[in-house]
Amino acid sequence: MQSTENFFIRRGNKNRARLIVIAIFVLIISFLGGILIGKLAICDEKKCETITPVINDASIKEADPHISNEIISGINSENIRQYLRDLTELPHLAGTDADYRQAKELTDFWKAEGLDETFLTPYDILLSYPNNEDEDKMNRLFIYDDSNTTVWQSELREPILHPSENKSNVVPPFNAFSAPGDISSDELIYVNYGRDEDFKWLLQNRSVSVENKIVLARYGKIFRGDKVYQAERYKAKGIIIYSDPADYDDGDTSHVYPDDWWLPDTGVQRGTVYRGKGDPLTQGYPSTDTAFRLSQDDPSLPLAKIPVHPIGYGVAAKLIRRLRMRISTKNKRRTTYNAFGIIRGAVEPDRYVLLGNHRDAWVFGATDPSSGTAIMKEISRVMGNMVKSGRWRPRRSIIFCSWGAEEYGLLGSTEWIEATPLMYATALSATKKVRNPDPADVSAGIATVYDKWFKSFPNDQNSRPKIGSMGSGSDYASFIQQVGLPCLDFSYTYDETKYPIPSYPLYHSKYETFYSVDALIDRGFHVHKAVGQTWAEAARNLADAMIIPFDVKDYANELDSLVNILLDEYGELMQNNGINLDHIRSAAANFSNTVTAFVTSIKNEDKNDPYAIRRINDQLMQLDRAFIDPNGLPNRPLVRHLLFADSSLNAYAGSSFPGLVDSLFEIDKAVDKEASWNIVKKHYSAIVFAIGAASSSLRDTSSFMNKNELHQTNIV
Ligand SMILES: *[C@@H]1O[C@H](CO)[C@@H](O)[C@H](O)[C@H]1NC(C)=O
Ligand SMILES: *[C@@H]1O[C@H](CO)[C@@H](O)[C@H](O)[C@H]1NC(C)=O
Ligand SMILES: *[C@@H]1O[C@H](CO)[C@@H](O)[C@H](O)[C@H]1NC(C)=O
Ligand SMILES: *[C@@H]1O[C@H](CO)[C@@H](O)[C@H](O)[C@H]1NC(C)=O
């Protein structure tokens, strides 16, 4: 199929959820991961003794240049295909036995393939499940006539369209964390995408109130949880969300799965409507044995207050007045597991490069997430085997991570390719080393993944490919937003200029099967292989390079552009309300100068001095942390990165200075203008301070006691 072979990596339109065919990520971390992923002891004391890092030749040696090619050429598409087949044999919803078995199998696999250490960490968390046994209670929609006779009722399950879907334990369509309820409404009101502007338009221009009514919204444009939130704000009593053919099909509904990759009329997108982060009962902390838990009935939990239900477009066409929703979805505490596999670093075992993706799926999850897990298995096999045979050991530790319960919003959700600025260089150099998987492109001279990416999505200056900024959408959200770790997220997506659709059509439906990937999306698994090669090379480079391959100039450029966007959009308004714009301009200019000096200092540094190498690497790793505000963004204490976070107005979008932009949004309509402006001013000063702290983190350490700089010491 031409469609999906088409493309890689893009910057998302801010208002759109994008497809991932594969969402996976890599990041680098020193000693901070504990709070997120529980205890991450890299080795017990006994084992560490034998590999205590010593200052020796290895610590001042550049990486072996041959390793890169060996790893890239070791990645095998047929292996990935087999792993995917195994992973998608059965449904593996979070908190089920199948999910645990997959975690266990992964750690067994890692051990067998040569990784040094593996472990599973359990978390007892609040999840949500529909009734899947009692047909009189299962989620269902009914239509009544005027005499209250049932004239139509919805199917309880998506029908089987391909024999491979004929498995037990397929969870029926539901929206996780819906409120249970049995409600009726004489009217069903169509609210388009369910955005604030859609409800506003109905109310103001059409005088239609949704109060005490059931509403019908289509998927797309914003996160489904925000549709529910808006429906609640406008006092609807229930919401049904459907996949419209205009968004999930190309207009011709005759060629659909199992013949094509388009969504059939019976396909239903499952998904969480939880708007918080982490376990709802222990937000901000790990759900371990000792954790304090809120009560499940606590009204402060950010859970849906009204029943929500997803449907396909076949059903949506039938819905008319006199509707009843019977929703029995319930929240339940269950145990889920994170699985880890470690390759210990030879020189800096206390520095970690994490490769991760989530493991749990709504049903078979052949694209989301198992394509990523299959690729990760292949990378761990190649790297593990090289370690086992004594051929290679990376300078820093590499940790493979498989998260549980991401689909419920406990870690995030999914998207296109995004990176924090320090990872740009790694993304660019890795894609240059990997061959374009499309033979037609290669014969047309578009030889590498980089070439294709550049051709499809050039940046505004046409000087290199465009790289997306980090929204909230995926597994990496907590790493960047809570602790400030540089992240890189890979995906291979369809040609979005040709198909302006919100996600790949089969997204979160039962039809996301191995068959759909094998026969319709990536025949031969060439795209999967290219993603694996790119991901492996990026990880190798981060783990192996003597000086971590972060380009601080990219950070300065990105900061300048964020400042420009802010000032273009809100500069005048801010100035008119007493904000001195020179503060941020001057801080950004200082940062830029510090960066230039730092780059020169790296060049001049004595590369035979292991302490100098260590110092540079430490400074590089600390830079992103300078942008973490311990108090969090206004009204969002758990979102702490001042530059890269989601907008609170749309959980799928990223925005510049998200705390500022959110606070400035509709500030003219604020009831207490002075209080609102004070929030903006306080946050603005925190940003100016953080930029100064970022400069401090790169300053010349030989004069770090310089009095003038002391006040800007980063406290994070
Ligand atoms: C139908 O049911 C509704 C709600 O239960 C009730 O108010 C109404 O009187 C019933 N109508 C008839 C014709 O029975
Ligand atoms: C599913 O499998 C069962 C038992 O193997 C079989 O009886 C049934 O016909 C199958 N259903 C479909 C739709 O293939
Ligand atoms: C809705 O009403 C507002 C205010 O009366 C008007 O400005 C706007 O153009 C209307 N929108 C549409 C889509 O008609
Ligand atoms: C930028 O650097 C100059 C010179 O060191 C200093 O006077 C000024 O306060 C700095 N600006 C900010 C916002 O930190």
UniProtKB/TrEMBL annotation:
Organism: Pinctada imbricata (Atlantic pearl-oyster)
Gene Ontology CC: apical plasma membrane
UniProt GO molecular function: aminopeptidase activity; carboxypeptidase activity; metal ion binding; metallopeptidase activity
Family, per entry: Belongs to the peptidase M28 family. M28B subfamily.
GO BP, one annotated term: proteolysis
UniProt-recorded name of the protein: Aminopeptidase NAALADL1
Subcellular location: Apical cell membrane
Alphabetized PANTHER family for the sequence: GLUTAMATE CARBOXYPEPTIDASE 2 HOMOLOG (PTHR10404:SF77), N-ACETYLATED-ALPHA-LINKED ACIDIC DIPEPTIDASE (PTHR10404)
Domain Transferrin receptor-like dimerisation: 579-698
Keyword Transmembrane tagged: yes
TM ranges: 20-42
Predominant subcellular localization, coarse grouping: membrane
Boundaries of every PA domain copy: 189-272
Origin: domain of life: Eukaryota
Record-annotated Peptidase M28 domain positions: 342-513
Known function: Aminopeptidase with broad substrate specificity. Has lower activity with substrates that have Asp or Glu in the P2' position, or Pro in the P3' position. Lacks activity with substrates that have both Pro in the P3' position and Asp or Glu in the P2' position. Lacks carboxypeptidase activity. Lacks dipeptidyl-peptidase IV type activity.
Keywords from the UniProt entry: Aminopeptidase, Calcium, Disulfide bond, Glycoprotein, Hydrolase, Membrane, Metal-binding, Metalloprotease, Protease, Transmembrane, Transmembrane helix, Zinc
The keyword Protease appears for this protein: yes
